[in-house]
Design brief:
Low-confidence stretches: none
Helix content: 40-55%
Strand order of the largest sheet: 2-1-3-4-6-5
Radius of gyration: 17 Å
Length: 242
């Protein structure tokens, strides 16, 4: 991504409604749908500026890698962890340990060889370990946001399931999310497309708007703990290594 995007992420991801709500949703899915053993080893693949690391650390011992030098330095400073350099699919850090959980949160859409990336991550799972991924949904919703963040694709369910299956993983849960805000987001993107507008959409809104959006988005965690959602701006998958 552009360096300016990483800078904005570092400044906003602790409080921005989208990042905060996604952390709540991912934490609930891990707690409800993945039976992690005590002392679990957890890896975040492509940790960016490190906003997810404290949440993941609440479930076990966390390691992380990140290809961007500036983002890696920010993540290390914020988390106090050693963030290793590495990139998917063929530049994963060396290590003797495999992991009970690997999280790739909005990472695969940046990788040219996403199926090879899934295979590389699957090889670093212990038998019975889980890969949790989130990606943007619906190729038809491509927008300036995707260009700005250097996305290579948006996903449908079939494409994501195929990538996980090609890695030898069994998909145990697959769902859309960011469902409640979907109609408003689609309307905005269609308007931006028609008018040729559309600026940065990751800046922090006013406090009351930010909190309202966070609460609305994060409320989906209660539904996702019980059942998949039928549509949304993003997809989440949990896949298991046999």
């Amino acid at each position: 991504m552009d360096p300016a995007v990483y800078t904005r992420m570092a400044d906003a991801e602790a409080d921005h409604w989208w990042f905060a709500a996604r952390r709540q949703i991912v934490a609930r899915l891990i707690a409800d749908r993945i039976a992690l053993p005590a002392g679990s080893r957890i890896l975040e693949a492509g940790c960016g500026t490190g906003g997810n690391l404290p949440m993941l650390a609440s479930f076990g011992r966390v390691q992380a890698f990140e290809p961007d030098t500036a983002a890696r330095a920010i993540a290390a400073r914020k988390s106090g962890l050693h963030i290793q350099p590495g990139a998917l699919p063929d530049q994963l850090p060396d290590g003797a340990e495999d992991f009970h959980l690997i999280a790739a949160l909005d990472v695969l859409e940046h990788v040219e060889q996403d199926m090879a990336a899934c295979r590389a991550l699957a090889q670093r799972l212990v038998p019975g370990g889980h890969l949790l991924v989130t990606v943007p949904a619906y190729p038809a919703l491509w927008s300036h946001h995707d260009d700005l963040h250097h996305h290579r694709r948006r996903y449908g369910k079939a494409r994501l399931r195929e990538a996980l299956a090609a890695a030898g993983l069994t998909t145990r849960f697959l769902s859309f999310f960011n469902t409640l805000l979907f109609p408003a987001a689609v309307a905005k993107r269609l308007l931006d497309r028609a008018t040729g507008s559309g600026g940065d959409d990751d800046r922090l809104p006013s406090p009351w708007v930010n909190e309202a959006l966070r609460c609305l988005f994060a409320a989906e965690r209660h539904a996702l703990s019980r059942t998949p959602l039928p549509f949304g701006l993003s997809l989440v998958a949990i896949a298991r290594r046999p």
